[in-house]
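Why do we care about 3D structure at all? Because function follows from shape, and shape follows, mostly, from sequence. That is the central idea of this module. The next example makes it concrete: a single protein chain, its amino acid sequence, and then its structure expressed as C-alpha cells.
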Amino acid sequence: MRAPAATALENIASGFGTVRIIRTEPPPSDSGLKLPCSGDSSLSSRLEDLRTLLRDHQRRAPGSLGFSLVLLEHAHNNLTLWQRIAGRESGAFALQRIERLIADLAAVDVKALGFRGTDEQRELAVQYIAGAFMAVLSWWVDRGAKLPPPDVDALFRRLVMRGLQGGTSLTARYRAAKRGAD
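And the structure:
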C-alpha cells in the first residue's frame, strides 16, 4: 500500500490537465506535449488533500518541520514524477503552490518553536524555511535523490534550526530539546 503522501502528490501530478495552445501556424508533427493547467480545479483539490495530510502530521509534532521528511520520502519514492514536475516550465505552478503550502506549515512551526521577534522577522523566518526547503528538494531531485531522505531531512532541520537560533532568540523549550537531541 502506498503512503498517503505519495498518493496525494501522485494525484496532484496526475490531475494536471492539457494546456491548449492557440497557434496561427500548424503545430510541429511531434507535438505531444502535455502540460499542467494552472486553472485545473482537480489540482487545487489535490493540493488541499496534501495540505490536510501535512497538517495532520504537523499536529502530531508541532515545531518539528515535519513536512520535510514526508515530502522527501515521497520525492525519493516517485523520483521520475518529481523530475518531470521540476523539469517543466509548467511544473512551476505546482511547485509554487507547494512552496506556499510549506510556508503556511512553517509559520505554525515558527510559532510552536517560540521564535521571538517582530512580525517582519517571523515572516522572514517563515520564507527562509520554505525557500530553503524548496532549494534543498530541487538540488536533491536534480542529482537523482542519492542521499537517503532521513539524512537530507536531518541536515535540513539542523541547518534551519541553527539559522533560526542565530537570527533571534528561541524559547528555553527549543534549547532544552536541542540539548536532548545532541
